[in-house]
Design a protein that fits this description.
alpha/beta, eight-stranded mixed sheet, six-stranded antiparallel sheet, 14 strands
């Protein structure tokens, strides 16, 4: 009996040690990719090159397969040039783990994240502080996703996978999903330099994208694309139950990240994110602000999700799901000027305002980031769907009451509504 407990304690200690090592590896990856030295990883810059070399070195160490012939050092690079007025050359970084199952190995799952960011910011860069020039480190956006994908590559290299997996680090995502679009276009056409990849797009049966997964709150995460295949919602929910992660499922796979390129190519997707925050697209998105325990949870969730997805006996079907965001925003005649918590990470009734934009109606009225909206114009708001419904009922130029909970105080603000910027 004593020896049994001793062995159990050893196994538990080993598990903790393994988890600690994974977190430490993810932290080191984030700290390098989001360092001042890399200058915000803007496509085509020295920082972009350093980031590429770092990721490629990790993939080579794992002895994953390259995708381009005849380039010993750059066989993992899929180069592309983009831009009309100012052309820039960068690349996607791709590595392949061949599947073990004879029947399934010719079907590929893309597991991706983007590794670029905003560089020094400035006007037109996408920075939320466009008047401040300075390194935008992009720790959460998206060094966090890159760190998790690198750990996934380690895990599946060790365990294997029935289907083949393409580990993809996309370039120029912030410039309009450029890298993922170029990758899919490349897969449409024959190229005798291409190796270890499917013959064409039809060989890609699913895509799992991780973008901004470093700021988990209350063990919560948003999983989009759960309606893009008939089995995806049940799969996502089963994994959540097993891994004790609270997920919010969004059926469509659209949204401002690389999975949208795959949806456009009629490939079913999962998009994982832990949501927005005040440091998003600012110089303050730095490594120490991340929740590495939460990243460990995301890693464990994604490991099981991909494991189950890879072993499915049947090829996932594709379902065309109209964008709920597009449909609902089309009804809006007003905007409050805030980014709501789409994941429902708060356990308090209402909808948390993750980011309240300065100069917009909510901010002008006194609402601040972190406030929990409980009523709009006298009607209850309990989740993102009710919030969108309330907005669709409002008219520009009017003033309406918005009740929020701030800490333990209930406050009613009078918000003067303005039309959304088109």
């Amino acid at each position: 009996m004593k020896s049994k407990y001793y062995l159990l304690s050893l196994a538990f200690a080993f598990t903790l040690q393994t988890q600690a090592q994974k977190q430490d590896d993810m932290r080191q990856a984030v700290e390098y990719l989001a360092s001042q030295e890399l200058g915000g990883r803007y496509p085509g810059t020295a920082g972009d090159t350093l980031a590429s070399e770092f990721i490629t070195q990790k993939l080579r160490q794992l002895k994953l397969n390259p995708v381009v012939k005849g380039k010993k050092k750059k066989g993992f690079y899929h180069d592309f040039t983009y831009g009309k007025t100012e052309q820039r050359t960068t690349h996607n970084i791709l590595a392949v783990l061949p599947g073990k199952d004879k029947k399934l190995r010719n079907e590929f799952i893309v597991v991706g994240s983007h590794y670029d960011h905003l560089g020094m910011g400035g006007q037109g860069s996408g920075s939320r502080r466009p008047d401040t020039l300075g390194v935008h480190p992009g720790a959460d956006d998206n060094a966090s996703g890159d760190a998790v994908v690198l750990e996934l590559a380690k895990y599946f290299k060790k365990t294997g996978s029935p289907r083949s997996i393409i580990f993809a680090f996309f370039g120029a995502e912030e410039q309009g999903l450029v890298g993922s679009k170029f990758f899919l276009d490349w897969m449409k056409h024959e190229d005798n330099r291409r190796i270890n990849l499917p013959e064409n797009q039809k060989g890609i049966v699913a895509m799992v994208n991780l973008d901004m997964v470093g700021r988990m709150r209350n063990h919560s995460m948003c999983v989009s694309g759960t309606g893009t295949s008939s089995c995806f919602k049940a799969l996502a929910e089963q994994v959540a139950e097993n891994t004790a992660v609270n997920i919010t499922c969004i059926p469509d796979g659209y949204g401002p990240s690389d999975q949208a390129s795959f949806v456009a190519a009629e490939i079913p997707v999962f998009f994982l994110t832990t949501g927005g925050h005040m440091e998003y697209h600012t110089p303050a998105d730095v490594p120490y602000t991340l929740n590495y325990d939460g990243m460990q949870q995301t890693l464990e969730y994604t490991q099981e999700l991909i494991t189950r997805l890879s072993a499915m006996p049947d090829t996932p079907d594709y379902i065309n799901v109209p964008s709920t965001q597009t449909m609902k925003h089309a009804k809006f005649k007003v905007t409050l000027g805030l980014m709501p918590d789409v994941m429902g990470a708060s356990t308090i009734p209402g909808l948390r305002a993750d980011i309240v934009v300065a100069g917009k109606p909510a901010h002008n009225a006194g609402i601040r980031s972190g406030d929990i909206i409980q009523e709009i114009d006298g009607k209850a708001v309990n989740d993102i769907n009710e919030y969108m419904e309330r907005l669709s009922e409002l008219t520009a130029g009017t003033t309406i009451p918005v009740k929020v909970l701030r800490n333990e105080e209930t406050i009613v603000f009078q918000v003067h509504l303005s039309p959304p910027v088109r």
